[in-house]
Amino acid sequence: MTDQPILVEVVRNGFVESVHHGCLVVTAPDGSVQFSAGDVTSPFFPRSANKPLQGVGMLRAGLGYDGADLALGCASHSGETGHLERVSAMLSGAGLDPSALACPAELPIGEDARRAADEPRKITMNCSGKHAAMLATCVANGWPTDGYQLPDHPLQVQLAKTVEELTGESIAAVGVDGCSAPLFAFSPTGLARSFGRLAQADPGTDERRVADAMRAHPWLVAGTGREDTLLMQAVPGLLSKSGAEGVLAFTLGDGTACAIKISDGNKRALAPLAMAVLARLGIEAPEELADLAHPPVLGGSERQGELRVSWSAP
Question: What is this structure's pTM?
Fold first, then answer.
C-alpha cells in the first residue's frame, strides 16, 4: 500500500492539502486488463465488496431468494426503516429472530437513521441483511445456525469456493470482517473480473440473479444519498458495491469492470475516481452526480476547493 501512486488530491483554495494513494484496475468483458494504476495483482481485503460474490455462493448452496431479499443479502444498508423491516421479514421467513444474528450490535451508518436510533442493535448493523441471508441458507440446508460465521462451517466453505471460482484466484488469506463473517483476500484484478462475470452471465444463472437483484433495488443495497445507490440509479446497467477501508467495485452491463482500493482507507476518494473511470469509458456523468465527481472542500460553510483526481487515464 505504501508504494501506490497518488490518485486523488484534496485542494483547498488552490493549495494541495492532502493526497490519497491507491490503485485501480479496469478489466474488459473478457477479463483482460484494459488499464490500471498501481499494484493491482497483490492480494487485499475487499471488505463488503465481497458481498455480491458471497450472494452467488448462497444461491448455489440453495438460498431461495430473488429480488429485494437477494439485494439486501448483498447489502451494506443504512439502517433505515425499510431496510430493518425487510431484514426482520427475512429472519422470520427462516423461523428466526434478530438474536440469531452473529454480527455485532451497532448503530446504523445512515446519518438520519443513526440520529433516530436509541441504542446499537444487531439488526441495525449494516451487514445484518447478509447475515440474515446466511442464516436462511443454513436453514434451507439443515446446517447448524450456531457458528455459521466460522470459516470451517459448511456455509463458509461453500462461499470460499465460490469466491475462488469467480475471481479466478486462490484465496491468499482469510480474516474476520467487521461483521464477524470470514473475509477473503485476493487481488483487485480478481475483484474486477468477478464483477464483470456477474454482469454478463446468462439470465437465470446465480451470478445474473445477484446482479439483476442489486441493480433493480439500489436503495436496498446502500441507502438514501449513498454512493452505490446513486451510481446504480444514475447509470443504467451499472452494478456497484463499496467496502470499508476505501474499496469500490463496479461493472457496466457489458462486463467492463473496475476495482479501486485507497491505501489510507478513506472512502472520500472513491466517488471522484469512479466518475473519472466512467468518463474514461465514455459515460458522461448526469448533472445530479456533480458532487460525486467533484466533492466540495468546505471552509466557513462555503466551497473553498474540491477533491481532484490526479490519476491520468491512458
Answer: 0.96
